[in-house]
Amino acid sequence: MVKIPTITVVIPTLNRPIRTLRAVKSLNDQTFDGIINCVVVDSSNDKKTEDELKNAKFSNNKLNLKYLKNNNSNRPIDNWILGIEEMKTDYGKFLCDDDWLEKDYIEKCLNIFKNESIDCVISNINIIKEKGHNVQNYYKYSSNKVSKDNVIDSFLGINNILPVTPSASLTKTKVLIESFYASLKHIECTKNLFGFDFYMSYYPVFKSNGTYLINEGLANSHAGDDSMTLNVKKAKISYCYFFSLINLIEMKDTKLNRKQLKVIEHKLATFKIKTLIDKEYKMLQITHKFKSKLNLIKLFSSQLKKYYLKVYYLFKK
Hints:
By secondary structure, the protein is of the alpha/beta class.
């Protein structure tokens, strides 16, 4: 008899009771016929989320719901740290409190695990906006096992970008725990949940058996006005992901091609310039072996493009 794997899903949340309930309900509706342990870690300043979950009725008798109140949270990452300690099943994942899964998400991910020698599966996502204009299968790629070059080229802007949200990934628990704690070493970014999601998703590509991408929107990502990224400079978020990539590259001393190396050197040079203008950037710095080398043509063209877009949207209004 084939053993049915067990799954743990951790939902870290803060003041989003209705959306958290939607996320839990998407687990209740899964076609997967095994045990799902759902752990909600809540640092809200009231009892609304707890009450919503207590009053809700779930039809799936294999869904085990556990509620944890975190009264000592000082950083966004704190709920996630409590949650990772609850990962004791065969597979695990995080689900953002404003996201939810399609009903066949777990079943389709596990089918990939059966047929591929991998440690992580990531689906495409559907972007759901409050005012409509939803986007199905947001990312453009083919279903396949991810190579190191795929990851590097994606996050250096050389090729199509790949998904990073934990809501779309399912990982073997041992590897998920290992990658999560490894991501904490860059705490200046990780404490605000920037860069660590990418690091966890593609850690298996550089360290273990790999990550497989499914080109099907099996996870739904809410794009609302209360996104925490709206109040942070996009450039800072970008550098968090950039330094996460460098950490992955150096973990196994991955060899880069000439184009990849030139992009990294240029980005490091522009980062140095930004640290002279804004001291907060210095806090994102990590130790690495790469040199910085400014590409003046690339810098000029980049600034020209930004100026063009500003003028374009100014007149469009």
